[in-house]
Specification:
Layout (H helix, E strand, L loop, with lengths): L1 E5 L3 H14 L4 E6 L2 H11 L3 E5 L1 E2 L2 E2 H7 L6 E6 L3 H10 L3 E3 L4 H13 L6 H12 L8 E5 L4 E5 L3 E7 L2 E6 L5 E3 L3 H7 L5 E5 L2 E4 L3 E5 L5 E4 L4 E3 L2 H12 L6 E3 L1
Parallel strand pairs: 1-2, 1-3, 3-6, 6-7, 15-18
Antiparallel strand pairs: 4-5, 8-9, 10-11, 10-14, 11-12, 13-14, 15-16, 16-17
Helix pairs in contact: 2-3, 4-6
Length: 256
């Protein structure tokens, strides 16, 4: 896989060259650059399969570089030292990224994921979601990228009613449209949606608090969602849910 490294920190570039040579022999580095301008020129000249791309450079960002590209089939792994808030934005956009300092195991996983990808036709939409989150847009406007076997879906987070664990997969129920079945486990989405008003009510269910219409008590209890789906609440999650609903700034009916 023909690869370029674009990073304005020479020590990071040297580290990546060494890690790729040692852990990823199938990767052939065909060039390096240290700026947005030189990176664009390099990609145009060598037409690589993959770019390992720094987010912040002296003359612009890696996001801007990708937006300027005509090479639409290029696969990208961003490299970032961003804070926790920015990392949440990357996760919502489903764009591959590595944290500085780069961990060898994470690099190997990222390269393997890129190799397995059969297509890469959603980068433009993913970048739009990423920049929306990074710009500090309101929670009600934020989106998440969900990829199934057929399509890349750009979904408003507030339109998700519930998420269901099915082994290492997650099923999403939306306000409208068909359910979306994604090959990532529920714990991953619990982390991604942290701060977006979701709560784990059961080992199998993560729900949007704003779509809880009613909580019916029982041994664990049941929540009635906005679409009238009845979902179980585990005994150990019951008290947390009740406390949250009592303090929630909306009218959620609690039945004893």
């Amino acid at each position: 896989m023909r690869t370029v490294i674009i990073d304005n920190e020479s020590n990071v570039t040297r580290l990546l060259l060494g890690l790729l040579a040692h852990y990823c022999p199938e990767v052939s580095v065909v060039g390096t650059a240290d700026s947005l301008e030189s990176g664009l020129k390099l990609i145009f000249e060598v037409q690589p399969d993959l770019a390992l791309l720094d987010v912040e450079m002296n003359d612009g960002t890696g996001i801007e570089l990708v937006q300027k590209l005509k090479h639409k089939n290029l696969k990208v792994i961003f490299i970032t030292a961003h804070d926790k808030y920015a990392l949440a934005a990357f996760r919502c956009s489903a764009i591959d990224f590595l944290l500085k300092p780069v961990d060898p195991d994470e690099l190997v996983k990222a390269i393997a994921k890129v190799k397995q990808a059969q297509r890469f036709n959603g980068l433009e939409q993913q970048l739009a979601v990423l920049t929306e989150h990074l710009s500090g847009s309101s929670l009600s406007q934020r989106k998440i990228v969900l990829s199934d076997q057929e399509s890349i879906h750009i979904v408003k987070i507030e339109d998700i009613i519930w998420c269901l664990a099915e082994g290492s997969y997650t099923r999403f129920k939306l306000i409208t449209g068909p359910e979306i079945f994604v090959s990532k486990n529920l714990k991953s989405y619990e982390d991604i949606l942290q701060g977006h008003e979701f709560i784990r009510i059961h080992n199998s269910y993560l729900v949007n608090i704003n779509h809880i219409k009613r909580f019916e008590k029982g041994e664990g209890g049941t929540v009635v969602m906005s679409n009238n789906d009845l979902l179980p609440v585990s005994v150990r999650k019951k008290d947390t849910l009740m406390t949250l609903l009592k303090n929630w700034n909306r009218n959620t009916e609690v039945k004893y």
